[in-house]
Amino acid sequence: MYRFVIFAVALYGVSATVYFKEDFADDGWKSRWIQSKHSGKELGEFKWTAGKFYGDAEKDKGIQTSEDARFYALSSKFADSPLNTKDKDLVVQFSVKHEQNIDCGGGYVKVFDCDLDQADMHGETPYKLMFGPDICGPGTKKVHVIFNYKEKNLLINKEIRCKDDVYTHLYRLVVKPDNTYKVLIDGEVVEKGDLESDWSFLPPKTIKDPEAKKPEDWDDKPKIDDPEDKKPDDWEQPEFIPDPEATKPEDWDDEMDGEWEPPQINNPAYKGEWKPKQIENPNYKGPWVHPEIPNPEYKPDTELYHRGEICAVGFDLWQVKSGTIFDNVLIADNEKEADEAVEDLLKNRLPAEKKMKEEQDAEEEKNRKAEEDAKKDEEDESKKDDDSSLPTDDDDVEDDENKVEHTEL
């Protein structure tokens, strides 16, 4: 059932609030979501459906991209007060089902502040964060985690692989006030870490000392030529020599053909370029490490996690092959409801989807085999008809008898 109001629950003595929840359980979703009318782009439409395979035809309905090679821009604002992320966890979760076996397209959400102009939302509209899967060919199958910080969109410095099958998967991002984060797919942590380490929010803490230079006498060569090693006297040999077994052709005419020269062959005595053997360098000091100093431009920020006030969520993406279904959108300051959605997915929805898909695939294979058999039977019948029109042995005998009778006459 759809719930769109803020509610709080007590969880181990901690207040947990859900600020936005959309499961597209009724057709009233159209009144809660606004389609952008931004000019200059041909925007695709979402349709309300559970797709081709599902666990529950009604419960599992979501919104599906319905037109190929289109941009999509759809958003919804919180019904009540915004989420102020100061000193709070931020939990963003939603489900993605690429049942069309997507070849290239986005499957992510964007989270916005209260200034979002929903009717004009487009790719350049500022957002607080962007999160979710992106697939394009075999080379791009990743989960985006992009934060807007000081008006710059910063991508995560790690590669997080997304799911690339045709079933429903839940993507969750958790950002905590201690400046840590984690990304989960179907309840399993696939990446986690420190915000400052995994994004380029801040300049580096240290930089190379601009005043430092490698000393001129610094020897960083671990090996050197052996000064005692000398090139053998017989080392220098030509690479090619005249073939000693070649003989001048008997019909060779020096006046007509010029002076005869035997062909060249590889010289078996040729040893190539001589190089002295290498020995340990007694003056080796190791690689020179440029000393570092504190970066004067670095200033710590204890509130990297803070996204300010969040008021809206939207799908702003491009798809070459449509058919992706989005569902179970949740924004909260605690993971309790997110965990419940994962439990339902793993226990009920995913097994039912896979079972229905397998049954459909088996039925399609059965129908394909029946069509092939029917086509083969038709070809066999056609061949029989063609063979029946050819002369038979009895026809040949009758023709011979007629010839004999005509000869006797």
The total strand number stands at: 25
Q: Portion of residues in helices? A: 10-25%
Shape: flat
> Any idea what the radius of gyration is?
38 Å
* Quaternary structure: single chain
Which architecture of the domain at 7-202 and 303-362 does the CATH hierarchy give at level 2?
Sandwich
CATH class of the domain at 7-202 and 303-362, please? Mainly Beta
Distance between the termini: 102 Å
Total DSSP helices? 5
What is the overall pLDDT average?
91
Which structural class should the secondary elements be placed in?
alpha+beta
Strand and helix order: EEHEEEEEEEEEEEEEEHEEEHEEEEEEHH
Would you tell me which CATH topology of the domain at 7-202 and 303-362 applies? Jelly Rolls
Biggest β-sheet, characterized? 9 strands, antiparallel
**Low-confidence runs:** 1-13
- The percent range for strand residues is 25-35%
Pfam families: Calreticulin (PF00262)
Organism: Blomia tropicalis
Biased composition (Basic and acidic residues): 206-234, 344-387
Biased composition (Acidic residues): 251-260, 392-402
